[in-house]
Amino acid sequence: MKQHSLRPLFTSEEIQQKTRALARKISADYRDGHIIVIGVLKGSFVFLADIIRHLTLETTIDFVQISSYGSFRHSTGSCTLKKDVGVDIAGRDVLVVEDIIDTGETLHFLLRELRKRNPASLKVCSLVDKPSSRTKIIPVDYFGFTVGDNFIVGFGLDYDERYRSLPGIYALED
Ligand code: IMP
Ligand code: MG
Description:
By secondary structure, the protein is α/β, with parallel strands linked by helices. It has 3 helices and 9 strands.
């Protein structure tokens, strides 16, 4: 299997620090609330597992999975819901947790679907924001890091299903 060279971007300690800060902000914003946290599979599962353990809120956790088409680097916009949530979100406060927002096509699709179900509120928390190739305007309420036009891996993020289990975040150099 081809070995890529991986350039370190964020260490596991930096990610933990950022995650705790984000969780404090979210906990303060929803104060004593009960939120539905929806993780977007698969990339968000590591970040989601960490952030929920720092929230001082009651949570209901669920997941969606979305198929998007395009090259390995970018979505092109035709998305389908491959796995839906199993809970009713009507009248509830919903926080969508993503690993990275790139073109914004995936979240644009998901937020439109979720809005149809009339949640009381709908916010987005992404570990990484990559604004350089954005094609859809997405209101990102909480994000940890901003990166340039690099393909990144680790901490849940993959390249062809590899590197998800790395504790830090790296830029893939080829
Ligand atoms: P978008 O629809 O272009 O915003 O893409 C979002 C999805 O593409 C993310 O949830 C990731 O799964 C994947 N993705 C985009 N950029 C990267 C990257 O740099 N590394 C790993 N996955 C990425
Ligand atoms: Mg993803």
